[in-house]
Amino acid sequence: MAFQPINTNTLLAGDVSPCSVDIVGNNANPALFMDINNEFVFFRMRLNCDPRANNDPTKLDNFAWGILIKDLAGIPLFSIRVNASGNVNKVQVFEAEFSDDSKDAFVGSPICQQNIQLGTNVFVSLAGSNFGGDPDFFLDFRVPLSCFPDNFFNDQHIFCGFTSTNGNNINKELPPPYTKPGNSNNPALCGGAPPSEEKVRLVKTVTPLTGRTCEVQTFTVTITATNISNQTLSYTITDVVNAQFVTLDDKIRNFTVTNQAPGASQQFMYMITGNFPIAGTFSFNMATAVDAADNVIGFVEGPDVVITPCRGLIFS
């Protein structure tokens, strides 16, 4: 996936609690991202802490997270919900409704839904930021394009993040036009501006690309950064390893590029030792290039590594 920022507004930590439903971000560390291919639309949300239940890698906390999609006039069209509250545990798409008599996003019945499967249609990873003093996390989720009208995402839309501690209404991060008594909505939760201009092309390789849950391995990461603009650039690359990778090594690496001429490339390499304790396909890491003005000028995620379970017992 090649996520692009869709919300670079400033969203400070601590405006709602618990921290796992607190959306955070700024221009350098966008709160919301989006990607699309010929089968799915993908969203990424930056949260103030781990949204998994007691840091359990197998399930989410008993809350709900989502994206409200509006037209350019601000009229709600669809809401996408990662609804882990109660016994729902589904990724859902609803046709959004709004009237003076119904100022609540959680109405109607889902037009599409799939069971939440961590590592398949929902992903959790370290975000490489710490707005609240502790590491922030990404919550990624995907929805089939078949849930929406044909070519729906070819048009421009406004995308708003929201969160809730129940599956009946939005009671935490609340975007307009919805309102709740005692809970003001926050326009900064909504974005949709064009992605930042790519000035640095980041290419990553990771070896090996396979492993087993019971094996500790050393992975070699190589990042090549090329200035594809027509000006000399200085910037910082931050590379963040997947949150589910268990290691004693540093999972966040920073590299500085100074006065890089147009067309020039620079390569960085590091090794990290550890393992994925659960089987699945994981995006190994994510790299972001940010200039001195905190603009995101380069971004790349992956490659994927495939981890298979260990079978049986080994006796020595």
Mean pLDDT level:
87
Output the helix-strand order.
EEEEEEEEEEEEEEEEEEEEEE
| Beta strand count | 22
Distance between the termini: 42 Å
Radius of gyration: 20 Å
| Spatial arrangement of strands, main beta sheet | 7-6-5-4-10-11
Strand content: 35-45%
Uncertain runs are none
Oligomer: single chain
SS summary, helix count: 0
Cα shape? globular
Helix content: under 10%
Please give the largest β-sheet.
6 strands, antiparallel
Structural class: mainly beta
Descriptive report:
Strands 7-6-5-4-10-11 form a six-stranded antiparallel β-sheet, with no helix packed on it. A five-stranded antiparallel β-sheet has the order 1-2-3-9-8, with no helix packed on it. It is mainly beta and 316 residues long. The N and C termini lie far apart (42 Å). It contains no helices and 22 strands. A hairpin with a 3-residue loop joins strand 2 and strand 3.
